[in-house]
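User: I'm writing a tutorial on reading structure tokens. Could you give me a worked example: one chain, its sequence, then its tokens, then a sentence or two explaining what the tokens reveal?
Assistant: Sure. Here is the example chain.
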Amino acid sequence: MTETTLASAVAAASEAPVLSVPRARRLPNRKRSAFLAVASAFLLAAIVVAGLLLEPAAQATDFAAKNLAPSLAHPFGTDWMGRDMLCRTLAGLSTSVLVGLGAAVASSLIALVLAAAAALGPRRADAAVSWLVDLMMGIPHIVLLILISFALGKGFWGVTIGVALTHWPSLTRVLRAEILQCKSAGYVAAAARLGQNRLAIAWRHMVPYVLPQFVVGLVLLFPHAILHEAAITFLGFGLPPEMPAIGIILSESMGYLSAGLWWLAVFPGAALVLVVMLFDAVGESLRKLVDPTSAQD
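And here are its predicted structure tokens:
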């Protein structure tokens, strides 16, 4: 090979597109995703703890300090009863997060059970689960959620059960596909030939396989649960008025916006959006950590 040909080959190789990113370059992105997930989870935990501790202060009234604009003494202002809006907002966020946590866990477990029944059971079970998923996804979430919450007497448990019974279809489809993919793997067939029963195969092979997707789906259900809880509470079909919740705070503030008390709605609404974004950041970071294709982004 001549020197001219060798130089041309080297130049062509240097201009060729890079098909894979070295591990040393991918590692910082994974560390950044892990840091973002931990930091967002820590902030959410701090909001919940602060809301639980400030719940008595959120109910305290002081008519001498009613309708005060945001200041150093009251960063979020006060309402028409002199209640500190920062304390009320944190207490409301804590309630919403607890409702979303309980509903998301229950809904994820429902999705896992139905997905396992559809993927591992007979064809009739798969057809029944698929029909049920299509039926649930064909009904608007908010309408079904209002009906269930109203039938159960509203309140904390009515809202939690309503959200749990309406948010499992999408995750069921994802987990069913993951279990079917694991079921067709060679090591699962080898375990069956070695005499392991279905329960042992499911516990030793399929559960670890679908666990990352299950955890990510569980976390990503939180934002939907929190927003829907706030929505039906705002409409009057959710939590009772005496309980501090973002939906109640926003609903009550509607009657005072025309009087110029803008802080009654702006700060609680912005705080709700911030919490939803934090949950979304946790879920997206976990997805990047467990998904090998997105870990290179």
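What the tokens reveal: The domain at 40-51+84-290 is CATH 1.10.3720.10 (MetI-like fold). The chain has one domain: 40-51+84-290.
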